[in-house]
Design a protein that fits this description.
By secondary structure, this protein is an alpha+beta fold. Helices cover 30% and strands 31% of the residues. It contains ten helices and 15 strands. Strands 1, 2, 8, 9, 10 and 11 form a six-stranded antiparallel sheet that branches. A six-stranded mixed sheet has the order 7-6-3-4-5-12, with helices on one face. The protein has a three-stranded antiparallel sheet with strand order 13-14-15, covered by helices on one side. The longest helix is centred in the first third of the chain and has 18 residues.
């Protein structure tokens, strides 16, 4: 049960959430880059987060998570496309870096974009970066932009797997108080303000259990997502739904790049030539596409 996101609901309450477990998908994404460990960990958390958020989309589209700040890592981007495709990239200073989202990003903003296709308007939410960890920053985003009580747990690390060597793994757990099914982008009753009485007790109890989750429980390949949820909520009861597969997949292709190059004049193309050809490297998957000085594809797909 790796490279999946698993939705769940605590008994018949309004507490719903998702657990994500990433192995080959996150190893492929992070290994394609040569980021320092601190940046890889932050980017891996962003991928786990966007996978849990994107899995709630009720239509074909893309969810883009972007954090931009004034710190040594001024930009991280991760996106989820319907069907489970994941990709991510970052910009980072070439320096010794601290660990932790706030230390790396500095002051800045979180931007969540839902792209439903060329013929549909984009939905975008923007909030300031608040919190020390990416999990805290994400919870603050939902509290401010969506008024949805949210708790998030994220973990990323390199794990030694028997017979496979050391690989990146990532995991996450996210729960929200959503009294009306089909919500998630606003429009519920004033949830944050109205959460009181029995609702408040249910939510506080769920938070208390989730707060006990440790990073190794999210990363250990021997602990299934269902096992973790049972450990947390067996007293109240927990329902799990069908898991959705996840994979590392980039949307770059030679035709798109060739179309961009076609907009440049001959002089501009010549400025791009090195050793007799133009090489374009995808920022997400790091795949190289090679073109002639006239913009004609030499290699790549």
């Amino acid at each position: 049960m790796d490279d999946v996101v698993l939705p769940f609901q605590i008994a018949d309450t309004a507490v719903r959430g998702r657990v994500v477990r990433l192995s080959g998908a996150i190893d492929g994404i992070l290994s394609a880059h040569e980021f320092p460990a601190a940046v890889s960990e932050l980017l891996g958390e962003a991928v786990a987060l966007v996978a849990m958020m994107g899995a709630s989309l009720k239509f074909d589209g893309k969810l883009i998570f972007q954090a931009q700040g004034a710190g040594p890592v001024p930009l991280i981007v991760a996106d989820y496309t319907s069907g489970g495709d994941l990709r991510a990239t970052a910009k980072a200073e070439d320096a010794e870096l601290p660990r932790g989202a706030r230390a790396l990003l500095g002051d800045g903003s979180i931007v969540m974009t839902i792209d439903q296709g060329a013929d549909m308007d984009r939905y975008q939410g923007v909030t300031p970066i608040e919190g020390e960890t990416l999990a805290d920053i994400a919870a603050a985003y939902f509290a401010q932009s969506e008024q949805i009580p949210t708790i998030v747990k994220l973990a990323v690390g390199r794990i030694q797997t028997p017979g496979e060597g050391e690989q990146w793994r990532a995991g996450g757990l996210m729960a929200q108080f959503v009294p009306q099914e089909g919500g998630g982008q606003g429009g519920e009753r004033g949830i944050a303000a109205a959460l009181s009485g029995e609702d408040s007790e249910i939510w506080n109890r769920a938070q208390a259990f989730i707060d006990t989750v440790q990073p190794d429980e999210l990363l250990d390949p021997s602990i299934r997502a269902e096992t973790l949820l049972y450990r947390l909520f067996h007293e109240d009861g927990v329902r799990v739904f069908d898991a959705s597969p996840l994979r590392a997949a980039c949307s770059c292709n030679a035709d798109k790049i060739a179309a961009v190059l076609s907009r440049y004049g001959e002089d501009d193309l010549q400025d791009m030539v090195e050793e007799g050809e133009i090489t374009v490297t995808c920022e997400f998957c790091r795949k190289d596409y090679r073109f002639s000085p006239k913009g004609e594809l030499l290699t790549g797909e």
